[in-house]
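Practice problem 4.
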C-alpha cells in the first residue's frame, strides 16, 4: 500500500509542473497591465520602472516563471499586488470557508442523491423510479444562480427563516455560521445530488443483476440485507471515485453561488483577483485548486483499494 501511494504521488508531480506552466502563461494573457494599475492615475515613469523592477516584471518570461516556481517550492506564493498581503495568507483565510461549504454541500448531496438512487434501482421502471429521475433531471437543469435567488426570495424575504447573505466563521459563532451557509450549501448540493443519484442508480442496477445477489436471494437473505450489504457496499466503489471529483470541484470555488450569497470563499477570491489583474493571487489559487484535485484523486484511489479486496490482493 505504501509503495502504491508513493507511486501515485510521484505520478502527480509532472501534472503539477505542467499545470504551473499553463497557469503562469495563461494569466499573462489577461488584458491590462497590473503595474499600470498600481502606479495610480499619474503613472510616473519612474514609479512604473521601480514597480517592474520590484516585482520582476522587467525580466524575461522564462526567468519570471522559474523565479516564481522556486518561491512556490519554498512555500511562498508571492504577494498580492492589490492588498499587499501574502497570497498564502489570503488562501488560508478563504480555504476554510470553501471547505465548510463543500462539506455541507456533499452532505446534502448524499442525503438526497444516494437514497433516491438506491430506491430508483430497487424499484426500476416504477413510478418511484420515474419520479427520482425527474428530480435528478431537475437538479441538473436548474441553474444554481436561479435556485439561489429563489431560495433567498422564499426562505429569507418571505419567510424570514435564514439570513439572505453574509458569512460567519464556524469558530466564532457555530449557530450563525450554519444559518448563513445552509442555503448556499443546499443550492450546491442539489445539483451534486442529481449526479450522485444517476451514478448510484446505474451502479446498483449492475450489482442487483449479478450472480451473487441472486444467490443471496435464493438462500433466503432478507431483501433489506441484499440491498444494503450485498448491493450498496459493492455499488459504493464508483460512487467514491465520483465523490472525490465532485468535492474537488467544490474546492475550486462555486463562483456564482458565493457571489449570490456573499460568501467570502475561493470563488469570490478568484473572481476579484481576475478583475483586479492580481497575477500572484490567480496563480496561487489555481495551483492550490489543482493540488486539491490531485489530493482528492489520491484519496479516492486509496479508499478504492481499501474497499475492494481484489485490488488489495493485487498490490
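Answer key:
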Amino acid at each position: 500500500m505504501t509503495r502504491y501511494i508513493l507511486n501515485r504521488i510521484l505520478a502527480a508531480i509532472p501534472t503539477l509542473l505542467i499545470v504551473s506552466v499553463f497557469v503562469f502563461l495563461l494569466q499573462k494573457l489577461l488584458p491590462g497591465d497590473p503595474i499600470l494599475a498600481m502606479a495610480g492615475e499619474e503613472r510616473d515613469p519612474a514609479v512604473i520602472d521601480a514597480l517592474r523592477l520590484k516585482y520582476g516584471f522587467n525580466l524575461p518570461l522564462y526567468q519570471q516563471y522559474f523565479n516564481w516556481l522556486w518561491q512556490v517550492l519554498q512555500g511562498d506564493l508571492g504577494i498580492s499586488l492589490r492588498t499587499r498581503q501574502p497570497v498564502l495568507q489570503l488562501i488560508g483565510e478563504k480555504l476554510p470557508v470553501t471547505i465548510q461549504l463543500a462539506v455541507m454541500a456533499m452532505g446534502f448531496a448524499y442525503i438526497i442523491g444516494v437514497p433516491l438512487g438506491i430506491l430508483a434501482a430497487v424499484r426500476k421502471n416504477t413510478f418511484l423510479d420515474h419520479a427520482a429521475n425527474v428530480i435528478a433531471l431537475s437538479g441538473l437543469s436548474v441553474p444554481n444562480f436561479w435556485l439561489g435567488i429563489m431560495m433567498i426570495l422564499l426562505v429569507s424575504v418571505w419567510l424570514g427563516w435564514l439570513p439572505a447573505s453574509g458569512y460567519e466563521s464556524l469558530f466564532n459563532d457555530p449557530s450563525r455560521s450554519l444559518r448563513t451557509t445552509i442555503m448556499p450549501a443546499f443550492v450546491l448540493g442539489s445539483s451534486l445530488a442529481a449526479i450522485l443519484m444517476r451514478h448510484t442508480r446505474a451502479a446498483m442496477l449492475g450489482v442487483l443483476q449479478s450472480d451473487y445477489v441472486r444467490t443471496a436471494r435464493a438462500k433466503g437473505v432478507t431483501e433489506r440485507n441484499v440491498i444494503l450489504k450485498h448491493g450498496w457496499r459493492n455499488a459504493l466503489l464508483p460512487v467514491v471515485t465520483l465523490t472525490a471529483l465532485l468535492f474537488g470541484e467544490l474546492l475550486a470555488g462555486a463562483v456564482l453561488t458565493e457571489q449570490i450569497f456573499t460568501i467570502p470563499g475561493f470563488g469570490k477570491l478568484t473572481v476579484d483577483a481576475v478583475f483586479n489583474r492580481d497575477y500572484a493571487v490567480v496563480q496561487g489559487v489555481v495551483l492550490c485548486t489543482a493540488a486539491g484535485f490531485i489530493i482528492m484523486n489520491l484519496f479516492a484511489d486509496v479508499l478504492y483499494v481499501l474497499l475492494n479486496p481484489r485490488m488489495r490482493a493485487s498490490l
